[in-house]
Amino acid sequence: MITLQEALSLPKEDILHIRRELKKKIVEQKELGAYVEQLRDLPISEYGEGIPIAIKDNIQVQNWNVTCGSKILQGYIAPYNATVIDKLLASGLAPFGRTNMDEFAMGSSTETSIYGKTCNPHNFKRVPGGSSGGSAAAVASGLAIAALGSDTGGSIRQPAAFCGCVGLKPTYGKVSRYGLGAYSSSLDQIGPITQNVQDASILYDIIAGYEPKDSTSLNALHVSTADKLDNQKKQTIAVIENYLQEASEPVRIAMENAIKALKDAGHTIIYKNLTNSKYDIATYYVIAAAEASANLSRYDGVRYGFRAEGANLKDMFVKTRSEGFGEEVKRRILLGTFVLSSGYYDAYYIKAQKARHLIKSQFEEILSIADVIFAPVTPSTAFEFGAKSDPLEMYLQDIYTISVNLAGLPAISLPIGKDINKLPIGAQFIGPAYGEQAILDAAASLEKILK
Amino acid sequence: MFEVVIGLEVHAQLNTKTKIFCSCPTSFGDEPNTNVCSVCLGLPGALPVLNAEAVKKAIAFGRAINACVHEKSIFNRKNYFYPDLPKGYQISQFEIPIVEGGEIILDFEDGSTKRIGVTRAHLEEDAGKNVHQGTFSQVDLNRAGTPLLEIVSEPDMRSGDEAVRYLKKLHAILRYLDISDANMQEGSFRCDVNISIRPKGDTKLYTRAEIKNINSFRFVQKAIEYEITRQTNAWEDGVYAQEVVQETRLYDVEKNETRSMRSKEDSAEYRYFPDPDLLPVVIAKEMLEEASIIPELPDAKKARFVSEFGIKNYDASVITSSVEMAHFFESMLDAGADAKMSVTWLSVELLARLKDGLSIATSPVDAQKLAMLVMRISDGTISGKAAKEVLDHLMQDAISVDNAIEKLGLKQVSDDGAILEIIDAIINANSNKVTEYKAGKEKLFGFFVGQTMKESKGTANPAKVNELLKQRLG
Description:
The complex is a heterodimer of chains A (451) and B (474). Chain A has helices spanning 4-7, 12-28, 36-40, 83-90, 133-140, 157-163, 197-207, 241-246, 249-264, 277-295, 313-324, 327-340, 345-367, 391-395, 402-407, 436-450; strands spanning 51-56, 93-99, 147-151, 166-169, 189-194, 236-240, 268-272, 372-376, 411-418, 424-430. With 451 residues, chain A is an alpha/beta fold. Chain B is α+β, with helices and mostly antiparallel strands. Chain B has 3 domains: 2-291, no CATH class; 298-408, no CATH class; 416-473, Arc Repressor Mutant, subunit A (Orthogonal Bundle), CATH 1.10.10. The radius of gyration of chain B is 30 Å and the shape is elongated. The A-B interface holds A 58-60, 66, 68, 73, 76, 78-80, 82, 177-182, 184-186, 212-216, 290-291, 293-294, 296-300, 302-304, 313, 317, 337, 340-342, 345, 349 and B 38, 41-50, 77, 79, 81, 83, 86-89, 137, 139, 269, 271-273, 276-279.
């Protein structure tokens, strides 16, 4: 598949040809299930004729049936474009196909979608990661030039690592959430999933910037990164030692090789520790579930989407939500409702906010002496379908990624090797707030060394 | 003996042009679901952006009631399910409201005053409206997202009368500031009453009932009276604990009674938490200064009217009780009318004639016309009595004051010759009374005045009549 950088220099007729070829391939490789259209035998969703970019099913595209992978949004037609979609269109790119995802972005395997599972292109018995599993699988299998995903606790970086592509989670506030079906408002960020670091940088530049319709959007001019991308820049890189030790052997070995390569290339390596990641998990699930419990209240069957018939109003509400949401979503709504209840609020929600503050300050401390942090993305490589049937075990998939969301920092995941089953292994660079250039440079450097 | 304890919660819609978190218009009475967008419909991905105008209006209110305006306040989500609440939560303020700790001063006829504390005032979004049609219901979301200022009083009121005075004063302040239409019928000024009783002398608060959404001052008074009777009877009958429970009650206008709506046991658990879609509201210094410039308020205006024009305290409170009346009065003075006479002609004569839905704002006689009428009394063109007839006519006929005087033939006669002609005729016809008067029966002077006025059909200038009669009768 040609890269985004290459596509940007092609004339219109070549782009139209690529779009036709993609449509053909998407139908041919239907079993992959990266696109909702593949899973539902539908023609690929389109909007305009620009360079095709695959769009996660929680990003609003006008006149598309955008559903967050949920039954409850069946039949809902988005009447407006997300800010990122308008930005794509303004740069000659175009939304092309809805990629599969865990329902409401809650999951790490893309197994909870109402449309069924997406396979890992490297091994169809294994998950592509999640929740942006469809986006990562599409890019990794050559069914997309690039894709947009969303990352609340690792949902861009983890599937990128499992599928062997590059995934960037920008600093909170750099890319507008306007038009992103919300899971956890203080954690959600839209970001690119691409074939290489250069493309991630290009796509990030296209979608970043201030949006007055989003109060949490950073009100500052976006400084472009792609034109300044420097794979020769030498940086001080902090390795999180305790993360390394907790990881599975293949991940640890790949990480150690990458560290050595970085050192050989002239980077300065220092070793640091972060608080045990079990606190990150607890903090994350309190905050994310609390916010989700309110964010998902609008799906009540009154105005749009799925509605179950009920004997009365309350019955309609209860049936609509009981039938419309899947198990994992209901679990998190219940958890969030619980932690916000009077008598529990201080013990959970307030405490989690304090912990979040602490996590943030730990990152700040390390990033005051290092340019970037280097850490694994996942404890292991892609697991088999159904392997993590215990929700808590699934939550452990995110131990290396969620603290970054809690701290609001930018991070980029890139492939650093493969295990003996030829499954990709990913690593991430984490930067200071608004330090996308630093992590892109570091990622570009490592990408070049490993090539 | 019991004491009544009343606290009031008022929801005032702020009269911003657009909604509090989106740019939809706030106009009233449009086709259902026409003033809506992705934000106020609660569509996936839509985000709220705070309307600064609503913040400014809340600041002005805080200034008007001598309250603390918090430089930093927080918007929270208040979670509950209802069809007219598109997001399944209302964006409101909880721990840190924008306005805290103010006061409203009540005025009484005897010139006394009472301070009522205002606990807080916070910004929030209004819900839509459910329209019930037999077996199904429809939702109109035009109102959803209209900015509300919820104003919560301390439990400082001790009677229905005080409660109504508080509401009227609050209403006047909102109108003076021009931050709300405060129209009870249209629902832009809605009131919930919290009410309990306690033995006189007791300082603790007993169980309170909350009476919801009463849509006129009169009904507030009646609902309170009903509720006082209900709670007092329950106490006296020894069933207070069973019958007076913390609950929400609805006032039934038809039956003039309050009825239980829901008890505290099924009251919602709102699960407030800070809205992560909105940053804390931080009021910049410039904005605070700009919004703190507020017009003269009822109390200040009243004090000024008393000291500047020497009008009575209570008259001044009547004149300043509504912004429309105060402005009417001020316009009369600007046109040149005498202050004390303007008070009477506005607060007694004009008000008495405003019937059938007419108000100061829609009065057929405007301030300029009423001022002219007052000036025509002052300059002796017409008598006060004739002026009432002229005013009656002006209420029906949109002609000028002078044309009305002309048309009704009420122009006062001040010409000596014309009056003397009448006087002489009366003296001639009552020679015996003249003799009695001259013999010392001075009371008869009034008779001659009366006869002269009657003969002149009231148009003779009374002062002239007095003067000339004295001359003629020696």
